[in-house]
Fold these 3 entries.
Entry 1:
Amino acid sequence: MAALALDISERFACTAGGLRRARALTRSAVGPVWAALADDAELCVGEAFGNALRHTRSGRDGGDVGLHLYALPCGPLYIDLSDDGPLRPGDRPAIRPGAGGLEAESGRGLLLIESLTAHWFYVPTGPAGGLLCLTLLTTRPSLR
């Protein structure tokens, strides 16, 4: 089996400071391996972490978010963010209708993730937890 080009896991307090540290770790880890992907990876982590802060129990006092970045040398880049589960039981991340509208004041995070990733999905992890999984291609397909 090939060695991973990237394999980093860390937990962060689910706070604005934790979000900044998660973004910085993403940029510093991804940049040396795929410089062209660092902006997209950092933006996706920031949006996903922000959603965890606002919409999951991780955003409550003492909550945290796990970040795992991993990839084979040929890619793709996988980004997993784990949280303490939704504030409302059964709630799942979804792109809201009208999220990209000019009048929308919020709700663009998953729309941005959708546009930057090859795939994303959310998996409940037991009675109290969730995992958002993102896949970013390390090479862009041709637009011919």
Entry 2:
Amino acid sequence: MNEIIAILNALSPTLTPLTLNRLSLIVEAMLSMTGRVTMLGLSRWTEKGGSYRTVQRFFKEKIDWSALRWQLIKQHLTGVDEIWLLLGDEVMVTKSGKETHGLGIFFFNLQQATSRFVFFKPVVVVG
């Protein structure tokens, strides 16, 4: 767990100290818990300072996630003279409900029907 916290400290130029502390609490809780991950579950698994309200405040905060990802990637690329590939793939996840950000109705060829989906585009750096 200490290694993960050390990696998270590389994000200090991008995050405020309070947000970095909250992120550390949430990451530790998320890696410790089993089953479904909810805000209530996260607050139960956090140590001192990780109340339900703290978890809510963290997820309500505006964070530049692309800058955070770049900070993590840049940490491992410094001083390396290798070839690195940036790979991405689009992932669809079916989702019920109407309030999810990014939710849309799309035609899915394999099912030959329309359904509600949320699209994710994970990006991986391979060296």
Entry 3:
Amino acid sequence: MQLTQPFRKLKPSRGNEAGLTRMSTDLNRRIWMKHASVTLALLPSFFFSRQASAKRNVELRAKFKYQSTPLESMSCTSCLEFIPGKTDKDLGGCKILPDDDEIEPNGYCIRWNTM
């Protein structure tokens, strides 16, 4: 015994002036839920993919004559401007080279500073 009939017209009321059938409102709700769940599932991939890109400031690298090898005993690891990566061997950043997060720990530039 069925308590509700899925195809019968509902009586018009405040929320249902058009007299929509129960089936069409259920279908609209399902479509909306489907789109909302897909959007929520894809949202994290959008944020993580944007964070993964590394940046280089090519103009300032050329201006300060940055090189990925040390000059004698001078390297980025001993410079006060160097911002280390997660480990000692990971790429880091530099206070002098903004928007550049691919600085080699053993790199060197003419702005090397220990004071």
